[in-house]
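Journal club prep — side note

Before the paper discussion, L.F. wants everyone to see what a predicted structure for a comparable chain looks like in token form. Sequence:
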Amino acid sequence: MVTRREAAQILDIPLEMAHRHGIPPRLSEAELGELLDNPPAWLVQSKANRTGKRPVWVQLTCAVCGFSEAARPKKWWPEFTYVCCLHHEAREIPVLGPGLVRSVYDGVGSRFAGIVDAAVPEA
């Protein structure tokens, strides 16, 4: 059995769309296979309307412990160098390279901080 959330990830659609179009809370592998093999018109249209600029789902994986989860990317997310669980200490995060400055963004996924290491702007 596959959950609605897992089905949405596999179909590459938002969870809200899966709910709106009647995908049940749990469905069998065969039912999911049928949706993939013979997509309904709404799913075909959804894929045709994609601009391709931002993915529907991203896989977040902690750079320290390897915990991973799928999440919907937010518009405010920059391109992260690393993501790590909020409970890790700063000394556990990979070392900042020379000539770089680090920015940390809390509230990424359900339990992550996003880290961006960027070149120091020249004055």
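L.F.'s comment for the group: The chain has four helices and seven strands. Keep this in mind when we get to the figures.
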